[in-house]
Amino acid sequence: MLFLLSPSKALDYQTPLPAHLQGHLPHTLPAFAQQAAQLIEALRLLSPQQLASLMKLSDQLAALNAARHEAWSPVFTAHNSRQAVMAFDGDVYGGLQARTLSVAQLAWAQEHVCILSGLYGVLRPLDWMQPYRLEMGARLATGAGGHLYQFWGGLIAPYLNERLAQEGEGAEPVVVNLASQEYFKAVNLKALRARVVTCVFQQYRGGQYKVESFAAKRARGLMTRWAAQRQAAHPQALQGFDEEGYAFDAAASSADQLVFRRQLS
């Protein structure tokens, strides 16, 4: 079973790792580093003003990311990179709290969590990652077409199939979708040889249950953390998720859509 997450725009390359991880946290290299290098070359052709237009950035952020693209290297080192799950710092990763997981729990996540990325395609949690900003929905022209869905469309699903095949005979291939729509669209479902289970997180407000962006993002990280702590092996196990007041709602759910709800005080 593989869990799909979105990346975050916010990054943290400064905060030291906690003591229990220092010297004990391994790293791997991104599977699609060559493709990332191709995208970097395309990004380097854009001026800061063009970057600002492409990704709706302020002038300050556009300049920062132009500098990141220039500094990006095909050689990943401890000086220019950090494990992806330690570098991402947005709402999802506030729920995941990867720094508080044990080495063993992070090792489980390495085998079962895939972070979709506009630049890197797919990252494992412990893949070294250099800082970047490139949303999957960006209309960046490449030899594959006018947007990143065309660039990654033939690569991500086969990669996921290969990962799922490594789980051994008899294991039902399952992808747990905890990614945003923008990123999950990069997975070619016609080529994906797996059952897709989507988790939905809702709040009770104004007399009805609804998905609220910030809370849903955090809950996706919470679910991933919960699964890593328990080494969840099948979708049914996820029904036990109960972090921060959420509870599985069987009546609102279906076999391939698990709905978790909470009432706000």
Write the layout of secondary structure elements.
Elements: E1 2-5, H1 33-44, H2 48-55, H3 59-71, E2 82-83, H4 84-87, H5 91-96, H6 103-112, E3 113-117, E4 121-123, E5 128-129, H7 148-152, H8 156-165, E6 174-178, H9 181-184, E7 195-205, E8 208-210, H10 213-230, E9 247-248, E10 257-263
Parallel strand pairs: 1-3, 1-6, 6-7, 7-10
Antiparallel strand pairs: 2-5, 3-4, 7-8, 9-10
Helix pairs in contact: 2-3
Structural key phrases:
265 residues, single chain
**Total DSSP helices:** 10
Structural class: alpha/beta
Q: List SSEs in N-to-C order.
A: EHHHEHHHEEEHHEHEEHEE
Calculate the terminal CA-CA distance, rounded to whole Å: 34 Å
User: What is the arithmetic mean of pLDDT?
Assistant: 96
Helical coverage, percent range = 25-40%
Q: How many DSSP-defined strands?
A: 10
The biggest sheet amounts to:
8 strands, mixed
Strand content: 15-25%
Shape: globular
Radius of gyration in whole Å, from Cα?
18 Å
Question: Would you kindly provide a brief summary of this structure?
Answer:
With 265 residues, the chain is an alpha/beta fold. The protein is built from ten helices and ten strands. Strands 1, 3, 4, 6, 7, 8, 9 and 10 form an eight-stranded mixed beta sheet that branches. The protein has a two-stranded antiparallel ribbon with strand order 2-5.
